[in-house]
Amino acid sequence: LEDFRKTKVEVDKAEVTSVAEHKAFTQTKTHEINMENERIAKEKKAREEAIADIQENSQQLSTVEATLLEDKEYTNKLSQMCTDKAKTWDQRSRVRADELSTLTQAIGIIKGEVSNKTSAATIRFAQQGVSVRL
């Protein structure tokens, strides 16, 4: 009977130790699970925020790209208008230069030819008045 009681005490001690170890193991694993669940929840929240940021940024990108495209089209039209105006200005400048050159030649001819052919005896006319009747 003594052996039986000693064995029972040893088995009871072993079971208490085993139960304590099991509870500690279970508690540790439960804590690890809870920590992982919290980490997962935080990462899910961060993921959702990242997705929302991506959607917002994507929307802004679309808006900016549309604005950029409109600006490029406007710049192209404006560049073409400026090029056309420059061509017109160059043409007008050339025409004016040709006109001035022609007028200078005409004045030179008039001064030279008229002064050579005019003498003191040349009759000069002066307009005295004008009358219009209807």
For the biggest sheet, the summary is: none
Distance between the termini: 162 Å
Quickly count the helices: 1
**What is the number of E strands?**
0
- The best one-word shape is rod-shaped
Order of helix and strand elements from N to C terminus: H
What is this structure, in a nutshell?
The protein is mainly alpha-helical and 134 residues long.
Features:
1 helix; mainly alpha; rod-shaped; single chain
Structure report:
- The chain contains 1 helix and no strands.
- By secondary structure, the chain is mostly helical.
- It has one helix at 2-117.
- The protein starts with a helix and ends in a 17-residue tail after the last helix.
- The longest helix has 116 residues, at 2-117.
- Helices cover 87% and strands 0% of the residues.
Compile the SSE list and pairings.
Blueprint: H1 2-117
